[in-house]
Amino acid sequence: MDKSYQPDAIEGRWYQQWEERGYFSPSGDGEAYTIMLPPPNVTGNLHMGHAFQDTIMDVLTRFHRMRGDSALWQTGMDHAGIATQMVVERRLGEEGISRHDLGREKFLEAVWDWKSNSGGQIAKQMRRLGASVDWENDRFTMDEDLSRAVTKVFVELHSEGLIYRGKRLVNWDPILHTALSDLEVISGEENGHLWHIRYPRVDGKGYVVVATTRPETMLGDSAVAVNPDDERYTDLLGLELEQPLTGRTIKVIADSYVDIEFGSGCVKITPAHDFNDYEMGKRHQLPVINVLNDDATINDEAPEAYRGMDRFEARKQIVTDLEAAGLLERIDSHTMMIPRGDRSGAVVEPYLTDQWYVKIAPLAKPAIEAVENGSIRFVPENWSKTYFDWMHRIEDWCISRQLWWGHRIPAWYAPDGSIYVGYDEADARKRGNLGDDVPLSQDEDVLDTWFSSALWPFSTLGWPEKTPELETYYPTNVLVTGFDIIFFWVARMIMMGLKFMGDVPFREVYVHGL
Questions:
Q1: Can you name the residues that pair with 197 across neighbouring β-strands?
Q2: What pTM was estimated for this model as a whole?
Q3: What pLDDT shows up at residue 2?
């Protein structure tokens, strides 16, 4: 007999026997007990966080299984739109191939080929961990039946006016050329500069000094704003200023958002390139001037001297030109939070684009009430405060992504710009009373990964079909998750569960550390 315990020698053999004998599948006897595995991204390997989380779920599932409950630990993987497309594009790049060389259809074939390998690795790791999930009901967010559920939700929300298309500012990744969710943007403190720029008064009586951390965006300025309580600038309100380097003039406006203590107390307002400026622009009905292309080069809305330049190259040239014109007051070192795409590492730009949105307030209201009335309980309870804080300030959800990998948006465009939504092109034509003589082209974008994962507690059980599994195991008992995705996944599952199932997706949310 070995002097020490060698788990490798026996664990794999026993796990295989237990799986083959169906020990991890629900017994069908006793009370139903359900846990949904937060689906790991198909992009790679499990990490310590997965091992920690899976252990908690495994303990709970085995405990209820031993009590005689019909315990379902639902397993599966998420297609992870941006992350997966990046991985496959990088692999193709090593062979000197771009996705555009392949075309959409061939590229998606390459992604599916890669998924079969990566997904298999995750399954091996979970087996090696000893996770007693129900492998007979293993699901993937891009499975055909789960994809049908995604399309149904989109079409129904759109028909109710809860999904719409609109032009708004989004987090834009200029490397990946797609909108990003807040979760996909990592902000960190970095060293930068604060440029103090002179904006001459049109009346010739001096100038106003404006501070900015992004001189290149001044090419799209619509106004200069001061705080209405700032007595230094009361006499400036309504005056016109020369906007440096552009040949345009802009007005001085008053808005209480302006921080009197920041810089000179005068702030340039660029509605197309800053989220706060965008809201201020709406309040004051300012022009929205976008000066960037989708790769963050300067576009034709800017003066000719800067067109085609990379934003940071343009920044250097603008500073040089301001200095030559005697319009640069000074440059200060400045530490600030810089947003970067978590996958590309590129500095993210607020960018004005046409995107699809979910009108979220009607869905958020019942989701707030479900936690308030105890239908859902957070453990520890203090995380409910985090949930409420976000839900009461929630804004419409941007659900479109400029990618090829993911659920393609079920919307078709006619030559006149009209949009038709349906389960497929034939259904879209039928809903729009269109004949075959009207050419239609499908939207090129795909849906945010969180849109499909928001349906996970019921799409995995067969919805929209009224399956025995759905009848037995929904709502689930407990969700085990980290606090970092309370906003992005937990809240959205609650909203979608209440909307499409008429009941909460889980009774308890057990929130653990990271």
A1: 210, 328
A2: 0.90
A3: 77
